[in-house]
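Entry 14: structure prediction run for Nickel/cobalt efflux system. Input pasted below.
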Amino acid sequence: MTTQRLARDWRLPTAGLMALGILLAAFTLHAHWNAFIQWCLATQITLHRYLVMYLLQLNNHQYAGGLWLLTGAFFYGVLHAIGPGHGKFIVTTYLSTNKESQLAARVVPFLGSLMQGVSAILFVFILAVGFNLASGDLSASRWYVEKISAVMIGAFGAFVIYQALKSLRPRRLTVHALKPLHQHDESCGCGHHGVGAALNGENWKIRLGVILAIGARPCSGAIMILMFSNALGIVTWGIAAVMTMSLGTALSIMGLSLAVRYARERTVALFGGGSHLSWLVPVAKIVGGIVLILFATVLFLTVIPISANGDYIAAGC
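Run finished. Output tokens:
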């Protein structure tokens, strides 16, 4: 009893320190946000120019440039994950409002990030190679794809809200619900409690929605590398660079997802997860869905305009 009382007594001061730390971090980030964004963009443009140079070396049969191309693409992907982006926002919102296993916290953002590379490859090969579109038409197509991806993120947020509202509805008890077939224990393996409960139900729909919401918006830098490699006739190296870039992003996002999951588990353990707080779960999901819709609205309204000369100018080539 003494230990439990001490734990309860320390909850409020700990929560206060956590809130103070979050406020200080938010203030510091806000104060240096513009400088951070400028640094990220400048560094990505510099790396992008190096990647173009390595592609030119490969085109001149200097195959040592291939190793540097893949290395630079990996670090480009890591830097892309560190900077602001929709993938980190979606993963953070999803894992902070949903209980997930460690396996799902690793696999879902990893697959979503890899899908970004696949989306860029499909975008370039279907439009640039298949339909032989000009640079201005590709820029218009990119504009539409980013608009559609923002709508998909908003639709995913609406789906999360719908799932949360549905869970708030009172469920009618049936005869089967009143009469359990067996006594649950750790060895029954039925999956109706503990970790098994998190792996059943409709979680696969939410996980698939997270993967699609992340992967449907291809990286503009990956598109530029693929277009340039296609123009040089070394498409295979372009695909390898894009997937290596996606791997760097995926590993970074996976680390972020595990950190968010750990923070969520520690918060639940600190404040307790009793039935009196069960209403907070759907409320948190509703708030997360609303935040996703607002974020999707910002993405929709701030898409880079169409460039008649192609997006490679804005990308720093």
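Notes: The radius of gyration is 23 Å. Will compare against the previous run tomorrow.
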